[in-house]
Amino acid sequence: MFWEVTKLRISMILSAIAIVLLGFGLIYGILGYFFGFSNAPIIITASLILVTFFTILQWLFGPALIKIFYHLTEVEPTDPQFGWVYNLVQEVAYYNRISMPKVYIANVPFPNAFAFESPIYGKNMAITMPLLRMLTPEEIKAVVGHELGHLKHKDTELLLAVGLIPTLLYWIGYSLWWGGLLGGGGGRNNNSGTMFLVGIALIAFSFVFNLFVLFLNRMREAYADVNSALTVPNGAKNLQTALAKIVLSTDPDIIERYKKKYGQIGSMLLFSGFHVEENIPSYKVQELVEYWKHIKVSPFADLLSDHPHPAKRIQLLEKLTHTQ
């Protein structure tokens, strides 16, 4: 178990460093070619300030949009209907040794749980109504342990920072592309055709770097699973069954589809889906968990997802059950 967690931490650190160094190295080389290597840092700094400004605005005021989109209602500890949810989140926050976030109920028709924060809106934790009806209190604790792990690990800030790289690549690529259309710039290598093609190439690279960011995000999600397993009593087992319930709630026949065609469930936030079936038989839950435990997942199964393939998550959690 110790080696699994250590390996995950090292992989996250090295991946973040690699994305930043590779991205800035590529940008510096291209700008140096067109405008001179002495001018490249100035252009990079100006561009970085611009994209950082909009990213900070997103970070600061994004929670306001989340509250509107998810129809969030804040829960107080004295709430006669949902006070127990507040107490449950408070218990998990105590396990994680973090300050108590604001707790919200989301009035949307799909199962989900998510945490978000900003300097203006503070720490927040939201749970949707279908999730509350579908899971046991112990399973909800495990899900909350995952989400509070994101707050504890500052995942929002980290991913926004690393996400500056593909945004910067796109912005500079678009500028070069536009400069090529206008006949080149004032640099020493201002051939408009070359600039146009390099601009297109940089825009393409920005999408490639987004895949790298997704890869890092999947590791952060796995690390949040680890947090739940290590801080919440029986968190690993309960998170396994919670994940299975939510996947099954979106498609009761998913096990059969997994067996017929090697499965992918697409991108999830933590848990997501529509057309929810809330009463999932326990035998189906256990059958899916056992199935996930023993299948071999393709390295490309979750390439375009911001979360790991469910089987990968279950298999990691299974390794952590031995610590509880």
TrEMBL record:
Membrane-topology annotation of the record: Multi-pass membrane protein
EC number(s) reported in the record: 3.4.24.-
Single GO biological process annotation from the record: proteolysis
Cofactor: binding details: Binds 1 zinc ion per subunit.
Keywords: Cell membrane, Hydrolase, Membrane, Metal-binding, Metalloprotease, Protease, Transmembrane, Transmembrane helix, Zinc
Transmembrane segments: 12-36, 42-61, 158-177, 197-216
Cofactors: Zn(2+)
GO MF term list: metalloendopeptidase activity; zinc ion binding
Residues at which Zn(2+) binds: H146, H150, E221
Cell compartment(s), UniProt: Cell membrane
One Gene Ontology cellular component: plasma membrane
Active-site positions on this chain: E147
Domain Peptidase M48 span(s) in chain numbering: 81-320
Coiled coil start-end: none
PANTHER family linked to this entry: PROTEASE HTPX (PTHR43221), PROTEASE HTPX HOMOLOG (PTHR43221:SF2)
HAMAP family: Pept_M48_protease_HtpX (MF_00188)
Family: Belongs to the peptidase M48B family.
Record NCBIfam families: PRK01265.1 (NF002322)
Protein name per UniProt: Protease HtpX homolog
Protein source organism: Sulfurisphaera javensis
Biological classification of the source: Archaea, Thermoproteota, Thermoprotei, Sulfolobales, Sulfolobaceae
Encoding gene (name): htpX
